[in-house]
Amino acid sequence: AQKITQTQPGMFVQEKEAVTLDCTYDTSDPSYGLFWYKQPSSGEMIFLIYQGSYDQQNATEGRYSLNFQKARKSANLVISASQLGDSAMYFCAMSTPNTGNQFYFGTGTSLTVIP
Amino acid sequence: DAGVIQSPRHEVTEMGQEVTLRCKPISGHNSLFWYRQTMMRGLELLIYFNNNVPIDDSGMPEDRFSAKMPNASFSTLKIQPSEPRDSAVYFCASSQNRVYGYTFGSGTRLTVV
């Protein structure tokens, strides 16, 4: 069975500081994809970053990077230089070809950026 | 591209009424997904389609829920009859390639009173 775990219900970070949001996953499939989504208070789901299980390097997208540790089955999101607009819910998700590429989402982490 | 378009944005209905949620995926995307989000259960996959064909509907809560995708540019999720516990935000998402993830619609906030 596929499973995504986010253990931090809420996080606070000072503006301009970096923050790490934790995500661990469990799958027996050798091929999988890991994703992070942002959900601001307005409710939309915004795709942030993708990491493939065979990717050798950690994914980066602007201020977002994914700290992928395959042996530990972790895919933590690092946000550098936090901005007030980063305050939102963040969801980690996984998909595998063997399950039709449907996404399994974690329970989310609420991030608050403090001025 | 206008993105994934869902309608209505908000729906308030009385218990027992039929509710139809609509979704227009991004042109060229061959997979479409319906999710439900609640505080208690988070994001739950209800059903997904590949090339307009339902692939997995095991997440549909019960027979009151049904989904169709008559063509590549339109899908509906119907609840009949609706119940207060169906109150949630319903998201539609489409995908062309999992490498790029899903593109979500803005969601429909359903309230059943």
Task: Give a structural overview.
In chain A, the strands form 3 sheets. In chain A, strands 2, 5, 6, 10, 11 and 12 form a 6-stranded mixed beta sheet that branches. A 4-stranded antiparallel beta sheet of chain A has the order 3-9-8-7, with no helix packed on it. A two-stranded antiparallel ribbon of chain A has the order 1-4. In chain A, a hairpin with a 2-residue loop joins strand 7 and strand 8. Chain A has no helices and 12 strands. Chain A starts with a strand and ends with a strand. Chain A is an all-beta fold. The model of chain A has no long low-confidence stretch (mean pLDDT 93). Chain B is an all-beta fold. In chain B, the strands form 2 sheets. In chain B, strands 2, 4, 5, 6, 9, 10 and 11 form a 7-stranded mixed beta sheet that branches. Chain B is globular. Chains A and B meet through strand 5, strand 6 and strand 10 of A and strand 5, strand 9 and strand 10 of B.
Features:
heterodimer, A: 115 residues, mainly beta, six-stranded mixed sheet, four-stranded antiparallel sheet, 0% helix, 51% strand, B: 113 residues, 11 strands
Q: What shape does the CA trace of chain B take?
A: globular
Distance between the termini of chain B: 36 Å
* Backbone structural class of chain A: mainly beta
Question: Sheet bearing the most strands of chain A, described?
Answer: 6 strands, mixed
Biggest sheet record of chain B: 7 strands, mixed
| Count of individual beta strands of chain A | 12
Rg of chain A to the nearest angstrom?
Answer: 14 Å
- The oligomeric state of the chains shown is heterodimer
What structural category arises from helix and sheet content of chain B?
mainly beta
Shape of chain A: globular
Q: What share of the residues of chain B does DSSP label as strand, in percent? A: over 45%
Low-confidence stretches of chain A: none
Q: What is the helical fraction of chain B, as a range of percent?
A: under 10%
Q: What's the tally of helices of chain B?
A: 0
Helix content of chain A: under 10%
